[in-house]
Each structure stands twice: as structure tokens, then as C-alpha cells.
Write a structure and sequence with these properties.
The protein is α/β, with parallel strands linked by helices. It is 48% helix and 14% strand.
Length: 298
């Protein structure tokens, strides 16, 4: 059995099959990159962003050829599997098989501590296009609906992560939000920063795979408000995670958690329990081993 990490080097499998035609090939697809780049284009159809459209066309051609092969493909979630089957694979020519390999985390952090103050957190790699797009949505569309509540509670939205781009400061200035939105940038200990907050927000609208930020929040026993795209691959329920796509509804969910800190705490506990059961390294590893054994006939 040969396992190839990510779809990009999948052409190596052709060379492997020349040496051993019976080799069983596993491709850890991770992200469906054409879906990812197409989403970037759809969120910003500009001449400056034309690379995303051209790259999505190139990747689509490559992936359509790849997913016709008799390999085992590992997807981060069932939505990516469904997308491939609906758009790239004809049922009559489908020779491969699929299994799930979601993101996983170690639930070995120090015992979560109570949040400090009335802050909530936006975190991640601050130079990635999906994260920048999410913050634009958060400030331009969501923030006006929750600014009054932040002032009422004396609450702050903290923004933490590496490689802060100028647009973060520009958006804070644009909305005169410096009193309630703090750009922390890179922090020494992200887990501690998550614990210091009451809950997290990540309104991502583009990308593929399961968002590890849900799990980062979960292991700190903090709930989150996200979008359908941000919750893709998770089925946690309203008692653990708020999923809202409309800007007004998103703001209402944030305000509800600010108004009801006990609810936020209970949801954090529930998210921890559910995520630990399904997405700990042990659980994901055991499920993967079972899938490989069933597929290979071992």
C-alpha cells in the first residue's frame, strides 16, 4: 500500500503502478483545491483576482482525471466527497473508493480556565484569503448589527494570528471600532488566548475541508459562532455551535452569547465532549485504520 499526501504529487502513483501494477494507492486529498480556488474567485470577481479563476480551471481538469482512478481517496469531510461525485465523476466510470480523514487535534491542553473579561476572539492565519474575506464580512456586514451590544457590555473582539495585513487595521478605522476591536496579531500561546476569550467567531465563506479552528476552540472548552462553510464536516448541533450565514442572524448569535455567558460556557463544554469523541487523534486514527483494513481486505 502506498499513501500519497495531498493530490498534487498524485502523478507519482502512475510511476509506482509501472513498477507494481497491483500496488494499492491511497491519496490523502485533504483539500479539493479547484473548489477552494473557485470559491476565492466567486467571492471577488475582479481582474486582480483572475489567477483564482484560471487556477480553478487548471485544477479542475487535473482533478477530473485523478478521481477516475481506482485509488482510495481520503477526504476531510463528506461534503468534499459529495462535491467530487456530483461534479467530477461519472457513476459509470467511478473505479475508486472514499473514506474520511478529518482534521484532528490532541486534547491534551491544560485544564481550561474561566474566560478573562468580556472578550471574544477571531483567530487564524491573518494573511489567508478566506480569513481576510471572513474578517471583511465580519466588520462590514456583521459589526454594524452588534456594535451597540458591544458598547453595552464593554466587550471587545480580539483578533489574533500571524502575519496581520493592513486591511485589518483599515477596517477597524473604517468603522471607528478601535474601542471594541483589538488587533492582537501574533500571540505567544494561542490556546491560552482562546481560553481568555468567552467564545470565538469565524465567519468563513470559502474553502474546503474541516476547519481546525472549531477543534482549537473545542479543546479549550469554548463555543463558537461560524457559518455553514465554517461548520462543514461537523455535525455538532445548536447546543454546541451556532451556525449562521446571514449577517444580522450572525450578529444576533454573538449578542446572545454576550448576554448569556452561562449559555456560552455550557455550549463550550458540549462542544468539547462532542469534538473529543469524534475528532481526537485517537478517534480519527482508529477510524482511518479501520477504513484502510476494509478497503485493502487486510
Amino acid at each position: 500500500m502506498i499513501v500519497i499526501r495531498a493530490a498534487a504529487p498524485a502523478l507519482l502513483a502512475d510511476e509506482i503502478r509501472k513498477v507494481d501494477p497491483n500496488a494499492k494507492v491511497v491519496i490523502d486529498s485533504d483539500l479539493v483545491m479547484s473548489k477552494y480556488t473557485q470559491g476565492i474567485w466567486e467571492n471577488s470577481r475582479t481582474f486582480k483576482n483572475r489567477w483564482s479563476l484560471l487556477e480553478s480551471w487548471r485544477l479542475k481538469k487535473f482533478e477530473k482525471q485523478l478521481y477516475q482512478k481506482d485509488y482510495l481517496f481520503l477526504f476531510a469531510n463528506s461534503e468534499d466527497d459529495r462535491f467530487i461525485r456530483e461534479h467530477y465523476v461519472k457513476p459509470s466510470s467511478w473505479k475508486g473508493n472514499t473514506a474520511m480523514l478529518p482534521n484532528a487535534v490532541r486534547f491534551d491542553a491544560a485544564a481550561p480556565t474561566p474566560p478573562k473579561g468580556k472578550s471574544f476572539l477571531y483567530f487564524g492565519a491573518l494573511d489567508s484569503k478566506p480569513n481576510i474575506d471572513a474578517f471583511v464580512f465580519l466588520m462590514d456586514d456583521v459589526y454594524p448589527h452588534m456594535a451597540e451590544a458591544l458598547a453595552k457590555h464593554g466587550a471587545t473582539l480580539d483578533v489574533a494570528g500571524r502575519r496581520v495585513q493592513p486591511i485589518y487595521h483599515e477596517l477597524v478605522e473604517k468603522h471607528s471600532a478601535s474601542e471594541h476591536v483589538r488587533i492582537l496579531g501574533e500571540v505567544d500561546d494561542m490556546t491560552k488566548t482562546i481560553m481568555d476569550a468567552s467564545f470565538s467567531v469565524f465567519p468563513v465563506r470559502n474553502g474546503t475541508g474541516t476547519r481546525v479552528r472549531v477543534l482549537d476552540a473545542a479543546k479549550a472548552k469554548r463555543t463558537a459562532v461560524t457559518t455553514s462553510k465554517g461548520a462543514e464536516g461537523y455535525d455538532m448541533g445548536e447546543d454546541a455551535l451556532f451556525v449562521r450565514d446571514d449577517a444580522s442572524d450572525y450578529a444576533k448569535a454573538v449578542v446572545k452569547l454576550l448576554d448569556e455567558p452561562d449559555l456560552a460556557a455550557r455550549m463550550g463544554e458540549t462542544l468539547f465532549e462532542k469534538a473529543h469523541h469524534e475528532f481526537s487523534e485517537e478517534s480519527v486514527g482508529d477510524a482511518l485504520l479501520k477504513s484502510l483494513e476494509e478497503w485493502s481486505g487486510a
